[in-house]
Amino acid sequence: MADIERIPTGIPGLDEMMNGGLPYPSTILLAGGTGTGKTTFCMQFLFKGAKIGERGLYFTTFSEPPEWMLKFLSTYDFVDPKRFGQEIKYVDLSYTLEKAKGMEEVLEAIESEIVTFKPKRIVIDPISVMEGLLKDDYRRFLFRFATMTKNWQTATVVTGEAKPGSPYPLELAYIADGVIIIYNTEVGRLRRRSLEILKMRGTSHTTGKQAVDISERGFIIHPGL
Ligand SMILES: Nc1ncnc2c1ncn2[C@@H]1O[C@H](COP(=O)(O)OP(=O)(O)O)[C@@H](O)[C@H]1O
Ligand SMILES: [Mg+2]
Questions:
Q1: Best mutation site among 159, 194, 214 for ligand 1, i.e. most ligand atoms within 8 A of its Cβ?
Q2: Mean pLDDT, 10 residues at a time, over the chain (225 residues)?
Q3: What is the DSSP string of 44-90?
Q4: Which one is the CATH code of 26-184: 1.20.1280.170, 3.40.50.300, 3.10.20.310, 3.30.420.270?
């Protein structure tokens, strides 16, 4: 049986949950409500790549200047500000999304960044807000985007917030090779974070919710806790 290539996620505890790392290339949906740690997870994934010489493209759909992002991130130990703007490129898609006449223009803007920067890792955070902007084109956009990242041989993480009543956005699960869900569940008067690998093509993986902790050290999983 041919072994599938894997890349390390940079999330302590996660690679061990899926036999050594994310299957590569692949598109992963990272789903969770607000404040569950999606952006932290994505940045840790990109800084891990930067550390081992893999370039990463971070697309945001919010118009937030990179300096702001860096200011919040700098509380984390895993962040090396020098890498930001070097191995990690921050691209604000909000202007493109506002001005584009259709999904083709959005896809072209994304692809031109991929062509020039040649990333091994890509993040779109959050991708789910595009639904309101692209409307009927959203599903076609997602499908084309997934095909594109496959052609360019990247490990891609897209983040999405589920609508009330469902644990993850279904339309994103369709295009994803893997689905990871982060929960922030009420336990009495407290909240407890956990993570579950719901699906991961090309590998066996741990099932069920595993405890998560976010601290200065970033996003950490404590399997079996
Ligand atoms: N330095 C830190 N130490 C501990 N927890 C932190 C730190 N920075 C952020 N957090 C936690 O992470 C949460 C934000 O995570 P974030 O990755 O922005 O979530 P999301 O992108 O899912 O909304 C904060 O609400 C806070 O609980
Ligand atoms: Mg976020």
A1: 214
A2: 89 96 97 95 98 98 91 96 96 94 95 98 96 94 96 97 86 96 93 96 95 97 83
A3: HHHHHHHHTT--EEEEESS---HHHHHHHHTTSTT--GGGBTTTEEE
A4: 3.40.50.300
